[in-house]
Design a protein that fits this description.
NusB family protein; about 0% strand; about 160 residues; RNA-binding; about 75% helix; disordered N terminus; 2 strands; 8 helices; N-utilizing Substance Protein B Homolog, Chain A
Length: about 160
């Protein structure tokens, strides 16, 4: 009986992951949540609740996923939602386009919004770490030059905001 409990606890801790893995998982989940908010015109609160209740800690393709840092996830999603116009302005300035020209690819836009929010609002987190994690998210969904765009925008924001 003791052996079984220990095994269950060990597997539970394994899916929780290290703080770095939980932060990376929070960034990925935040991008997905912001994308859902943008494409389905939902509130941040509804999407955050849905993710926490139905998506965190799930098994995907037979593999246990790392549980995202819930506070970090919530902070990013709420921050983008509450300061959307400010984040849009940051991205427009960094990419050299007018604020009124929204990117045509909503998922790519969600990645940049989340990255911009963290650059602006998380001075205690190393900028290159933020850029690296959002590049990993970009590579998870895209195979072409989108990562160069994300890297360029977030790098300019890093230099401008830090």
């Amino acid at each position: 009986m003791v052996r079984r409990i220990m095994s269950t606890e060990a597997s539970s801790k394994k899916s929780e992951g290290s703080p770095k893995a939980r932060a990376s998982a929070a960034r990925l989940a935040a991008v997905q949540a912001v994308y859902q908010i943008m494409t389905n015109d939902q509130s941040a609160r509804a999407v955050i609740d849905e993710f926490r209740l139905h998506r965190f800690g799930q098994t995907v393709d037979g593999q246990d996923m790392v549980v995202p840092d819930g506070m970090m996830f919530t902070t990013i999603v709420n921050g983008v939602y509450d300061r959307l116009n400010e984040m849009e302005s940051y991205i427009a300035n960094a990419s050299g386009r007018p604020v009124t020209d929204k990117p045509k690819e909503p998922l790519l836009h969600a990645i940049m919004l989340c990255g911009a929010y963290e650059m602006a609002d998380s001075p205690d987190v190393d900028g290159p770490v933020i850029i690296s994690d959002y590049l990993d998210v970009t590579h998870a969904f895209y195979e072409q030059g989108e990562a160069r765009l994300v890297n360029g925008v977030l790098d300019k924001l890093f230099k401008a905001l830090r």
